[in-house]
């Protein structure tokens, strides 16, 4: 047991990312039952939908899980009220300052973890009182840090800057990668893309097939004038890159993005015009598997890598 597994009351230091349109109660439940911590991704939900997912996961016998709340989302305050009323044990916050809600959450017995992409904001988050931090490198899918700091660099920078548990995220899809970030001081990992393509993910089958067919170089960080987001290359992505390369304004990019673009791609399965958010590790994922098998593979790979590492020296 390390500081993170003790804090979150989990067997393995593996957290499933709270990804929009992927992380419903089924995925979160499967990860928690397999010994990690499952997160319900509130960023693509309305308040009544979040309540339904929280109640469904409880009905299925899962008491230890979390909810990811993007703080800049229009329903953020309502979501905070919901997790308080529903007595959610863990909340992961992202995309905003944790100052506003951390004290309130902790006063109600909720453990708080915040996602950051720089050591500067890691220090500010610790000062705000969060219990742990996710250090998310630019290899990660979805919204990303403007500094484009890699996970390996970011973990070490943050680890030496703060005194609370650090969770590495971005580009992690194997047990070998877990060992690698552990050697840098990470207390655990948050994994997104691998779980996004799992059987229990609420993403469309078309999206999952697109993910497992991805090769090296098939993702790109785009929309940097808005909020950097890593996505799979498709027709929509090509239009974004063409406009950005031509010096598009922020306003024109907002118009191109429109509304519901990620839903269209990830959830509805439009592989042409949808925004297909995924991390660089997609190129390492070759099949759609149940969460139980994914977790077993991660543990086996980690143990083999650890044995090889010890034998090497």
What does this structure look like?
The chain is of the alpha/beta class and 313 residues long. The chain has 2 domains: 200 residues, Aldolase class I (TIM Barrel), CATH 3.20.20; 77 residues, no CATH class. It contains 14 helices and 11 strands. The protein has an 8-stranded parallel β-sheet. A 3-stranded antiparallel β-sheet has the order 7-11-10, covered by helices on one side. Helix 3 links the parallel strand 2 and strand 3. Helix 8 packs across helix 14 and helix 11 runs antiparallel to helix 12. The longest helix has 22 residues. The chain is globular. The two termini are 25 Å apart. The model has no long low-confidence stretch (mean pLDDT 95).
Distance between the termini: 25 Å
The CATH class label of the largest domain is Alpha Beta
CATH-level-2 architecture of the largest domain: Alpha-Beta Barrel
Beta-strand percentage range:
5-15%
What is the typical, i.e. mean, pLDDT? Answer: 95
Any idea what the radius of gyration is? 18 Å
Q: Largest beta sheet, briefly?
A: 8 strands, parallel
CATH superfamily descriptor of the largest domain = Aldolase class I
Give the number of helices.
14
- Going across the major beta sheet, what is the strand order? 1-9-8-6-5-4-3-2
Count of extended strands: 11
According to CATH, the fold-level topology of the largest domain is: TIM Barrel
Unreliable stretches covering 5 or more consecutive residues: none
Could you say which overall geometry the principal axes of the C-alpha atoms support? globular
Number of domain units: 2
Order of helices and strands: HEHEHEHEHEHEEHEHEHHEEHHHH
Specify the structural class. alpha/beta
Helix content: 40-55%
